[in-house]
Amino acid sequence: MSDESVANRNTYQFDELIEAGFKENADDYSIIGQTLSHYRIDSLLGSGGMGKVFLAQDISLKRQVAIKFLPSLFTKDGDRVLRFEREAQAASSLNHPNIITIHEIGRIEDKHFIVTEFIDGRTLRRRIESGGVGINEALKIAVQIASAMAAAHDAGIIHRDIKPENVMVRSDGLVKVLDFGLAKLNETEAIEIDTPALARKASGTDDSGLIGTPQYMSPEQVQCLKLDVRTDIFSFGVLLYEMLVGHRPFTGSSNEALLAAILNDDPPPLSGQIPDFPAPIEKIVKQCLAKAPGQRYQTVGELLSELNAARNMIGNDYRPSEIETQTPASNQNTRSIAKGWRFAAIGAGVVILTLISALYYYRNMREGVETPTGKLTEAARPTVSDAKKKQAAKRYTNSARAWNHFLRGRELLHTRSIRDINLAIKSFEQAIDIDPDFALAHTLLGKSYLSLHYRGQSPAMEVGQKAKIEIDQALKRDGELAEAHSHLAEYILQYEWEEVKAGQEHIRALALDPDSADVSHAYAFYLLWIGRFDEALTEIKRAENLDPTNRWISLNVGQVLFQSRRYDEAIKQLQHLVDLYPDWELSYSWIYNAQIKKGNEEAAFDALVKRAEVIRAGPDEIAVMKKQIARMYARLGDKEQALVWLEKAVEGRYFYIVAINVDPDWDILRADPRFVALVKRVGFAPLPKIMAKGNQ
Predict the structure, then answer these.
(1) What's the pTM value of the predicted model, to 2 decimals?
(2) Who's near 325: CB < 8 A, 6+ residues apart?
(3) Which of 97, 206, 358, 442 is deepest in the core (most CB within 10 A)?
(4) Active site residue 161
(5) pLDDT digits (tens, 9 = 90+) for 161-200
(6) Largest Cα–Cα separation, the chain
(7) Domains along the chain?
């Protein structure tokens, strides 16, 4: 393809994406609070490649429902719409307690939607990532998933995308399987690989094609063969394996390697990872994961019989050996391990171990400060043993109820989804209502408001004021709380634009808790924003080592590499994340940025399109669109329009604007006095080395 044709295709599809993004984003804001048919739209629950989901009230029947609006790109094709309606109608005929109930399929003007029951729970993915699933709980969940599959298969419906993201677990333990009948609609997410053995397309049937999530594909899906119910049984085996040990049975450094592993490799035995692992469960998983469909269970009914027999055989009181507690499944939340010495529950109260004598460390740290912004030398950084010598018992709350609300809020906040951030705010508020002196709850409530700002969900100054109030309340109650100082540093840099003051708060936070991945993570970004790239990379990698399962930190390693102009390393880091989390849109965004800077327009465009498929410019992106437009104009070489839109982004206090001094996309603007003025307005002095790049 010629450079000109690539440019023309990119320009056309960029325009289409931006136009569709603005229209759908505007609709997202206007639709909330409105009544469509007999549904009152209350709030956005989330968005993804299959559309946006809103929480609504069914006025006629006085109940909460979820309404999914399908993306316009999926509904432009009339044949595709008809196929969706046919499949959704088939799915709506399913009546099973473990399958989400479809209430209605309809259309309002040009918007196609599907109304389902509202499930107040969390995905199995989040359950796995928040600490693993024990054997007893895994079996309870597995039986319910298998029951749902059996009901669907009896109705002639193959799911084709069984994975933790498509399973919801309510607080009472009831499991709901989502998206029966919807997987076939999402054909643009098919992965096409040039290797003939993997990319061969079967002809003459709608049931072929490499469609699904790579990590959970059956060998016949990988080979694009005709599918039957046994493909779901294989995917179920992958899911069950992951529930039991915390990782998937097949991995690869690329999609090609992953698919080859599914075709050729045997998964590591469960008994080799968990001592005294029950043989009946091992046998079930092994048979589900057989390469040849004929060697698997031929029906889910057979699978269910053996699952129930295994549960009865091992009993509900099965307890793993002490060694088993060290397996990946029980150690998914590495953050809690890294900081485990700080938290211990005793009786009805909760005792927290933390650092004291922070002022002593802070004064010593000042000797290692190279500039007023705060540069730590390795000698000045407290070690784990130093910190432990300074720790003392301190009660954050004596209320078990407040502590439980806090734990739930912290888990919700970690996902960073808009819905979960708002739920986290409610949880922290409940904890504070019970114990107004709960400093850590005040701290994370403040962080939650900052997170809303980062997601572009509320007016910047409004959430900033709320964040500052809560952080101040935390420090009033505990002046030596590392998290509070770290979040205060974030606030100062984002809202007050005072570089030196922010740096001092980061240093104090590190002095108080040198072993916190979150504190190191925040400090790494501070170092990045002020242009100390090598130190930022060292700090972000340190955070990753402290919390290796935190995908946000791993993503931001790629971001730091990108901002450091180390594009090849950034792409390698981000591609690894894509292999682990193929439905996570942020990895594609940064791959796109890095490929653009390398001049690889084809690869960049592919990443952009993939991101658009995964999440269609949801309303959380409204606040960042001005910056994105400025970035596009800068990449097109239109300095005037880039400056116009960049100034709008500064006025809107878009959170990422603090990267203005280091972002390579603005290099073509750096010699312009108006850009220099914007940099100073945000509180930075233009960096000489980067200014030289801009003048080249």
Answers:
(1) 0.46
(2) none
(3) 442
(4) yes
(5) 899 989 999 888 899 998 765 544 443 333 333 333 333 3
(6) 76
(7) 32-117 (3.30.200.20), 121-329 (1.10.510.10), 333-515 (1.25.40.10), 619-696 (no CATH)
